[in-house]
Design brief:
- By secondary structure, the chain is α+β, with helices and mostly antiparallel strands.
- The protein folds into 3 domains: about 50 residues; about 60 residues, no CATH class; about 220 residues, no CATH class.
- It is about 45% helix and about 5% strand.
- A hairpin with a 6-residue loop joins strand 5 and strand 6.
- The protein is globular.
């Protein structure tokens, strides 16, 4: 079936291919057609016992237990990266000399704290030790992030997180997200607003809240926040799968003592709601790893959150996989090709909870999330119809 879908799209790439506005392929480019063919075959064969594939019975009663702890980090996760593990030492450097420079960075952090992140000395040392940073993060077994923080404390400052992401992927994520918000977020909001009666209560409530606040379509930060919330509601992903609300006066110690913080990345929202948040924190592996400044906005906070999945080799949590992959492919525009099927999705969970029945179900193995391609195609079809 894959070859059939590939041949069809090869004949009509602009009409049937999975592509972004920029003409970039989404995954292999023919996932949507492939899924339609599979759905049709399954429909035709429904009730035909001869067409059913026998499945091996589980030999261990715990094989399908979704409650079993799972390591969310992977030491070989080079997904979407162009420089995942540098191999060439900087000119004139050895591993021993780089270790000396790492120790100098630790000493500078102890002396100056986060303020030292902007110094010229730290700038020079962080650039020249990039290879050693990646070697430590990519080591097997993967180190705890608390250990990474001890070895590379400046890496957990927003400037160096964003810099490290650019070294890995070749993308200035803050510029890329800002550009996407200017060019795409208004389109997504328009898509939902012009079909308001089509959506369920949560999306309608969000749209009503936006209509009552005239700033939403004028303020880029509010627009970005609204789009993420709309997408999560559309994909039936709970807000808690990416965000944790906390009191506006809460400190890092308060949050770590009073909140249940998951292992996978979360943005901690200090305020009464995401739309009115005054401060942001990033948590991973049950700890707050970064506190953003009072002047930082949602766009920067989301950039830091998204970058952390790539820098620290973390898979998307199944509970937020659609929203994160949509952000990846449509906003940040990271679209690994299908040459390595095991690396075309950053959520490899074999099981998940059905958003319709709330039961544990087997996830279908695909090279790109079908809900993501479906949304992008629906958006483009809606714009084509309304523009004529």
């Amino acid at each position: 079936m894959s070859q059939i879908a590939k041949n069809i799209v090869a004949q009509y790439p602009k009409t049937l291919g999975d592509v972004t506005d920029e003409g970039e392929l989404l995954g292999c480019g023919y996932t949507s057609i492939l899924n339609q063919i599979k759905t049709r075959v399954e429909h035709v064969n429904r009730g035909n016992t001869l067409s059913r594939i026998r499945r091996l019975k589980r030999t261990n009663e715990n094989d399908g237990d979704i409650s079993q702890p799972k390591n969310t980090r992977n030491q070989v996760d080079s997904y979407g990266c162009i420089n995942w593990q540098p191999h060439n030492l900087p000119e004139g450097e050895t591993l021993d000399s780089l270790e000396v420079k790492r120790q100098m960075l630790v000493a500078l952090y102890r002396k100056e704290g986060p303020r030292g992140a902007e110094s010229v000395k730290v700038d020079d040392l962080m650039h020249i030790t990039c290879l050693q940073q990646r070697q430590f993060i990519n080591s097997s077994p993967p180190p705890r992030l608390s250990d990474v923080m001890q070895e590379w404390p400046f890496l957990f400052q927003k400037r160096w997180l964003l810099w490290h992401f650019e070294k890995l992927t070749g993308i200035d994520i803050l510029s890329r997200l800002t550009e996407a918000i200017q060019n795409k977020c208004r389109r997504i909001i328009n898509y939902f607003q012009h079909q308001k009666l089509k959506w369920g209560g949560e999306i309608q409530s969000l749209l009503t809240e936006m209509e009552n606040d005239s700033r939403t379509l004028q303020d880029q930060d509010l627009m970005a926040t609204s789009v993420v919330l709309l997408l999560m509601a559309f994909f039936r992903e709970a807000m808690e799968s990416l965000f944790i609300l906390a009191d506006v006066t809460a400190t890092q110690a308060d949050i770590e003592a009073q909140q249940v913080i998951p292992d996978t990345p979360r943005l901690i929202v200090l305020g009464h709601s995401i739309m009115t948040a005054s401060r942001w924190m990033l948590s991973i592996e049950g700890n707050v790893l970064l506190t953003l400044d009072n002047s930082d906005n949602f766009i920067l906070a989301f950039a830091v959150l998204f970058a952390s999945y790539y820098i620290f080799n973390i898979e998307y949590q199944e509970s937020a996989a659609c929203t994160l992959e949509l952000a990846q492919r449509f906003l940040v525009r990271i679209n690994p090709e299908d040459s390595n099927a095991s690396q075309t999705m950053k959520c490899t969970a074999k099981q998940g909870v059905s958003k319709r029945t709330k039961r544990v179900v087997q996830r279908k193995v695909t090279t790109i999330n079908p809900h993501v391609t479906s949304f992008i195609r629906s958006l483009m079809e809606f714009e084509w119809k309304t523009s004529n």
